[in-house]
Structures are given as C-alpha cells and as structure tokens.
Design brief:
The chain has 201 residues and is α/β, with parallel strands linked by helices. It contains six helices and six strands.
Length: 201
C-alpha cells in the first residue's frame, strides 16, 4: 500500500509539474514590452504597403473582421459612430468632425489611416493619441483571439488595428467615434459598424 501511495504521489507531482510548464509557455507569449508587441503587429499582412492589391473577398473579408471583434467582445457595438468614406479628404473631414464634436463637450474617438510619423496617430480620443502603455495592454488583450484565428483566417495589420481602436474607444467611454474607411469601399474592415451618420468626400 505504501509503495502504491508513493507511486500515486509521483504521478500527481508530474502532472502538477506538467501544468506549471504549460502555464509558463503560455505566459511567454504575452508581450512584456511595447517594442515586442509592435514587432508582432508589424509582422502581420499589411495591405497598405502592397503595390498590387486585388480587391476581392479573399483579400477583404468582413466576416473575418466580425469574427475577430466577436472574440474581443464586439466593442464596435458598444459605441455610437460616424463613418467617413470617399476618395480624397477623408482624414481631414474625419478630423474636423471630431474637433467639432469635441468642442461641444463630447468625448470623441477618432480612427484614421495611414499615419505620417507614429502609429499612435491612427487612434485618438479628444485630440490625445493612444499611449504606448495603452497600446501594449490592448495588443496583449487581442493576442489570443488573433492567434486563435491565425491558422485559418489570419487577421491583417489593419484589422487588428481596427479592433484595437474600437476597444480603446470603449475603454475611454467615448460618446461617439469618428471612423475613416481604410482600404476599400464595400468590404473595408470599418464597414462592420452601423453608423449614426455617414459622410462621403
């Protein structure tokens, strides 16, 4: 009986050690620094940098964006939005609208692209760009959902940034978010929203 008890204890110890090992492996995947998180993001497919881009349901897929947002709690459904689309002047129009709303004491999120100097220019609340610590926290939150989708439908750089923007606006308790379309029309990732108003430039 004593030998059996010792054997059982050894097995339990091995199982416990195995669980600890798995936990450690998982914890290593979390980003410990902003630089590490941004490197991960930059490795994702960035259609903004593609010279020749085919506009089709493979390259652009609302279902992929919807799946990613569902995995992070559908933040886009928790805020009011204004959607700005068109060929030229989208960013300027979106920025002006955000400023107008802000001047009337609204807490306003603004999502534009591409950026000129810093990635943080894309996600703004009341004229204040998202901080490095906020970006790091959000990338850590979105990491598991992105990896869950990676084998079948890997989210693109723009899709991840769009999800992060919605999450940030919810965290900031924005009254409304002004969203600029990014890479297309009907199948653009931002078209998952149901805006209160739409502007065409």
């Amino acid at each position: 009986m004593a030998k059996s008890t010792k054997t059982t204890k050894k097995k339990q110890t091995r199982k416990a050690a195995s669980k600890v090992k798995v936990a450690r492996v998982k914890s290593r995947k979390a980003f410990k620094s902003y630089k590490q998180a941004i490197k991960y993001l930059s490795e994702k497919t960035d259609y903004e940098k593609e010279k020749h881009l085919r506009y089709n349901v493979t390259t652009f897929s609302l279902s992929r964006m919807e799946k990613l947002l569902a995995l992070v709690g559908n933040p886009h459904k928790k805020i009011s939005t204004a959607h700005i689309a068109g060929t030229k002047g989208k960013g300027s129009t979106a920025t002006m609208l955000a400023k107008m709303l802000e001047s009337n004491d609204y807490t306003v999120g603004l999502y534009t692209s591409p950026h000129v100097v810093s990635l943080h220019e894309r996600i703004v609340v009341n004229s204040e760009m998202i901080s490095e610590s906020e970006m790091l926290g959000l990338l850590n939150r979105v990491y598991a959902p992105v990896e869950k989708m990676a084998k079948v439908e890997p989210p693109s750089f723009f899709e991840i940034m769009t999800a992060i923007a919605f999450m940030h606006f919810v965290d900031a308790k924005a009254d409304i978010a002004v969203i600029e379309t990014g890479l297309g029309g009907r199948l653009d990732s931002t078209n998952v929203i149901r805006p209160k108003v739409v502007g065409i430039t």
